Amino acid sequence: MNHATNRGPTTTRERTRAARTEPAPVGVVIATRNRSASLAVTVRNLLALPERPQVLVVDNASTDDTPAMLTRDFPQVRVVSLPFNRGALARNHGVRALDTPYVAFSDDDSWWAPGALAAAARHFDAHPRLGLLSARTLVGPADDADPLNDLLAGSPLGTATDLPGTQVLGFLGCAAVVRRTAYLDAGGYHPLLFFGAEETLLAYDLAARGWGVTHCPDVLAHHHPDPGPRTGRPAVVLRNELLTAWLRRSLPHALARTRALAAEARRDPHARRALRETLTRLPAALRDRRPLPPHVERAARLLDTVNGATS
What residue stretches are annotated with the Glycosyltransferase 2-like domain (predicted)? Predict the structure, then answer.
């Protein structure tokens, strides 16, 4: 009896075809709003990757031609359309909608280098405690190294025997890959922060749940940010830094950061705006106040000392 039909692919061409059709272990979530032109560039680059990842766009209620462009030019891309702008929480919707074990994030002006997602998957497969991987980022057409690369690589937290790379408590949102179960376990991005330095809180929450957060420079992301000014961004970052302190850091640290911002606010209108916005959001932060476990707090204090933050 000939049982060849039960043996699966028997030729090199058939084996290659079968390998191509296996689902990629890493899906990509893109959060976007009103940037259809740059989004199209991002999607095109992601669809050309050899890993052939599933790409999911979460549209933060765009009012431009983003929905029509995606339907017309990229019918193979999944789209989750939100009824209003949810900021960083769009990523939470995307992670829930995917079923891949690992999820990479891109913004509508960033994408992954060929082979980067495969390298990330290997790290996650080999290190079960790894919850989030921060990539090395190259910026703009000249592929300039993002200054954050050196800061992450030089993290004073050092290495761990059961994790790849260097342990960190921060990362760049558009250059990160997560273990889906870890991300959902930590709760994803916090609704109080919207956008702007929202990554630190997620890193804290992952570390507090026992998940590793590391920087792996062999995983490469490309970022092409708009060169124009981002009006109001510094104030939003200051606000979110302070809210993060009240949400997760010890009370002495949160009070010290508030005093430092109040002193700065006397001479800087952006700092005054950040302080005002923080005060309006503080009651919600106090309702969700969950200080870091001692070992994570010690690591955060070490980073404070290195970065020159008030403590």
Answer: 28-183
Name the 3-class secondary structure at 29: strand
pLDDT tens digits for range 237-261: 999 999 999 999 999 999 999 999 9
DSSP letter assigned to residue 146:
P
End-to-end alpha-carbon separation of the chain, Å?
77
Same domain, 167 and 285: no
**Residue 265 burial (C-beta neighbours within 10 Å; 0-12, 13-18, 19+):** middle
Residue holding tokens 């060929």?
114
Reported pTM:
0.89
Q: Are residues 178 and 287 in the same domain?
A: no
Question: Under 8 Å CB-to-CB from 245, ≥6 apart: which residues?
Answer: 253, 254, 257, 258
The structure tokens listed for 155 are 């993290």
Which domain, by its residues, includes 285? 233-293
pLDDT in tens, 120-168: 999 999 999 999 999 999 999 999 999 999 999 999 999 999 999 999 9
In which element (H, E) is residue 250 found?
none
DSSP letter at 4 equals: G
What is the chain's Cα-based Rg? Answer: 21
